[in-house]
Amino acid sequence: MKMNNRLKIGIVILTIMVLGSFLLPLFHDADPTKQGTFPKNLPPSLAHVLGTNSLGQDLFWWLVYAVRNSLILGVSVSIFTTLIAGTVGLTAGYIGGGSDRVIMTLTDVIIAIPVFPILIVLATLVRGQTSFLIVSVILIFFGWAWGARRVRSMALSLREREFINVAKFSGSTTLKIVFREVFPYVFAFMVVDFINAILWVINTEAALAVIGLSNVEIPTLGSIVFWALNYNALFIGQYMWIVAPVVATVVLFLGLFLTSTGYNQMYATRRGHS
Q1: What is the pLDDT of residues 200-249, one digit of tens each?
Q2: Quick check: 69 and 17 in contact, CB under 8 A?
Q3: Segments forming the whole domain that contains residue 219
Q4: What sign has the CA pseudo-torsion 4, 10, 16, 20?
Q5: Is residue 242 part of a domain?
Q6: Where are the alpha helices (DSSP H) in 31-96?
Q7: Helix (H), strand (E) at residue 164
Q8: Is residue 125 part of a domain?
């Protein structure tokens, strides 16, 4: 199936962001978080593409490492949330009965909880000791439920199809039917959920970092803004300290959004012709 323009543009944006954030650090050994490495408040130049901040840090390298760390967090958490959502949704939807009711009750409880206020409370409790592991666990706990409900609804529909009955009568086990017959139909939707989950994770961690409840010592898109706000970057004329991470976040989100919607459109087109 030929890729549509939306998917192509999204993949190009993500490729540039990923390769840049992972390959450029190979040519830079200095710790971007170390203070006083360079003169403070330098304007953009060939030596310092985005200038330096009030802490004597090179903003370009901080941003490169921030994009990389945000992507690592987003992808890592999204892998787990997608796997949990897929497993729970397929199990509840295909098996049904009492198991379905119990699983969906738990899922609905997670969905009903106001996520961001809970994240703020939990992050506040571990403030000063927050690590990426703690943030990841919190985000995984709250991030799988919506995906599980979507997968479950598809599994409920698919289990009544004729090819599922044929598989049952042919002697296939439940596990084999779920993964050989049902899973291929929900895989495309899980890919879209995976991409959307990356968006949600990066956005949520950035929001927590901006208010100081994530680990702001680690370069992320949110931690740059946190330090910029703390040092009144706009009032002292350090516009790149705010503008650069905001633009990078918008571009990254645009790439993820175009990839998600483009892939969904491509799959819908292919399904319509199948």
Answers
A1: 999 888 888 887 777 788 889 988 988 998 888 888 888 899 999 999 99
A2: no
A3: 49-272
A4: negative
A5: yes
A6: 59-95
A7: helix 162-169
A8: yes
